[in-house]
Amino acid sequence: MSTTLRRSLLARLGAAGLGVCALAVVGAGAAVAAEEDTVDVRVDIAPDEEPGVLALTVANDSTSLTEAERDGTDRTFTGKLPTVTVTDTRLPENVDPSSYWYVMGSITDFAGTAGQPPISAAESFGWYPDIVSGNPEGGDQVVAPGDPVDPGIGGFVDAELLASVDSASDAAGGAYSATADLLLRTPADVAAGSYAATITLTLLQD
After folding, report:
1. Which residues pair with 107 in a beta bridge?
2. How much of the chain is helix, strand and coil, in % rounded to 5?
């Protein structure tokens, strides 16, 4: 190969090499940001409550009784217990099949807000439980309402509102709601005025 031809070829190869370098430099230069900004990312993760919770909730913290038709010489006042819901998020295999749960209710005497003599709840108050939701349609009952309690039978103490029927494990993974019709029966000569009482609802498991 002549000296002239060799120089010409080396010159072309050198130019190609410089071209590759030039492209590499330009490419690297394009990846450099002229300016930057940031975006903060936040997430709040609540404690995991499932499975493993047997809980009681009440739809409202108060209710009122209004006068109904007289029952003989007595005066009667009726109302509705706010919906009570038992939620069981436990897995059936984690629940003792021999256990069961139930909700009990008790009530204080009706105290007169203006100094009237109290009305004895034990002798004057009753309720009539009813299941609102939770039992499967067309299937066996999972929960059942408690027995009705009539006024004047000797005491409204630890009355059952609802309970699992056979086993708490059968009710695991569900939510069950109940309410009750409330009834207060007083003598006709009861002192006029406002009265207040408190129902306590307790979820228990044996």
Report:
1. 199
2. 20, 35, 45
